[in-house]
Specification:
The protein is α/β, with parallel strands linked by helices and 272 residues long. The chain is built from 12 helices and 7 strands. It binds S-adenosylmethionine. The site of S-adenosylmethionine (SAM) has 19 residues, from helix 3, helix 6 and strand 2.
Length: 272
């Protein structure tokens, strides 16, 4: 049995089946993400059912942790109410939102230190790209950025992107959150700083070695990549493995890199 080659029409049909499936229809993920998985995986399989299985497994790894998302309607109402009150009320609602996902939740007790450590190194940026942002933009009230610092945010889940744009509007910031698969379409705007937090290891699972081209494609002065120092259960130390990921990615690129750590987050300050 030979390896599979799929026509454009076949891929389109399979993509639509996934988009319409009960698991994915509510979260509105980009079509080109699923297409790219079929194109990437088809040469590795001889049987169609194995290919579908492999694509669904990859897709599950990319988005599964974010299914069963927050109640954006309620959270939007809470935010609007807080904005009629005071800064502390805004921070309280943002804290609830940051708590609703593990990545931002575990950073919460150290948020002030986290941003102090970052901005003491990169200075006051005029522009930031928040790549694979999740709920991280709700950390803005702790970042102490200038009001005219442009904050671009990218995620694949549309409902989340719209929620972030509502927040930007309330903050009277430009509406700069985008639904975009940043691996297929790396953002091309120039910026002082890019945050790529807690996602590089999952990019490697999606496509081994892909971080290198992705990081090279970014037009930023400072790239901050963070990775967890230990597994979610805290049982396994991941420092060695995650350092290796970063230094393998940077091999022979001649970029400077400095490491620091805030609690469970290893942060790599990369200057291109
Ligand atoms: C582990 S969370 C990280 C959240 C955030 N960076 C942080 O550290 O607080 C990963 C987020 O990246 C998004 N994501 C995954 N792959 C992506 C891609 N290729 N392009 C854009 N967003 C992506 C997911 O939807 C999810 O919201």
């Amino acid at each position: 049995m030979s390896r599979l080659t799929l026509s454009k029409d076949e891929i389109e049909q399979y993509v639509q089946e996934i988009l319409r499936s009960p698991k994915y229809r509510a979260i509105d993920i980009p079509q080109d993400l699923i297409e790219s998985l079929y194109i990437q995986e088809s040469p590795h399989h001889k049987r169609l059912q194995d290919l579908h299985k492999a694509v669904r497994k990859k897709l599950h790894n990319i988005v599964a942790g974010y299914l069963g998302d927050s109640d954006y309607g309620q959270a939007t109402q809470d935010l609007k109410k807080a904005f009629q009150q005071d800064e502390q009320s805004i921070k309280n609602v943002c804290t609830q939102i940051l708590k609703s996902h593990i990545s931002t939740q575990e950073r919460l007790p150290f948020l002030d230190v986290f941003y102090q450590e970052i901005f003491s190194r990169v200075g006051k940026p005029r522009s930031i790209l928040d790549l694979a942002c999740g709920y991280h933009p709700f950390g803005l009230p702790w970042m102490n950025l200038d009001q005219n610092c442009q904050y671009f945010a990218f995620d694949i889940i549309n409902a989340r992107v719209e929620f972030i744009n509502t927040f930007f509007g309330l903050l009277q910031r430009p509406i700069l959150a985008f639904q975009q698969d940043i691996l297929i379409h790396p953002p091309q705007m120039e910026a002082d700083v890019a945050f790529f937090f807690k996602e590089a290891h999952r990019f490697e699972q999606r496509q081994r070695g892909c971080n290198r081209n992705f990081w090279q494609a970014l037009k930023v002065k400072h790239l901050l990549v963070s990775l967890p120092a230990s597994s979610m259960t805290m049982r396994h130390n991941k420092s060695v493995q995650h350092r290796r990921l970063v230094y393998d990615t940077l091999k022979d690129l001649n970029w400077s890199v400095e490491e620091f750590q805030v609690e469970n987050e290893l942060i790599f300050w990369i200057r291109k």
